[in-house]
Amino acid sequence: MGSSSSSIDNIPNAREIMQETGFSAAHLLRLYERFQFLDKDQTGELRPEDFGALRELAMNPIGDRIIGAFFSPGQERVDFPSFVRVLAHFRPTDTNRTRGTQQDPANSSTRKLKFAFQLYDQDRDGKISRAELLEVLRAMLGLQVTEEQLQSIAERAIQEADLDKDNAISFDEFRQSLEKVNIDHKMSIRFLK
Questions:
Q1: pTM here?
Q2: Are 37 and 53 in contact (CB under 8 A)?
Q3: Where are the strands (E) in the chain, listed by range?
């Protein structure tokens, strides 16, 4: 543990990042190593194309949306603390961690759902439109189904989730439609084995 502790001191604001995200020193150190690996230009920031080295994202049908989630609108670079804040959404929920007075931690069910919602809501208007849903379905299902089947799937999803009948899915409707899904299990990555 001593080497982890001394190496963690090389990461700017490491203690604050750990407190905010709930990552341990070992996790943060591993993430810092990954960040540095992706930062080929050694600028201390990543661009969307830097994520191309991650085979898992390159093979993921919505990998470009996941990469986009690391960047705020108009932002073309992400620094290490921002990188870690996004990854914290995928940290398994720690039920023993005290919450303090701030908002829910990034790995809470609500924050995980909000993160998933934004992967669909690309125009960030607070609603998932039929077109946005179709775009994700096309990426995920591709040539496995016909366009007519995709349209049918999207139509049914909208009908089932759209409680206020405005032909779109709000975050509350999205959350309600997924209330029986174990979002913590679906959106958790084991960062250290």
A1: 0.79
A2: yes
A3: 45-46, 78-79, 127-129, 168-170
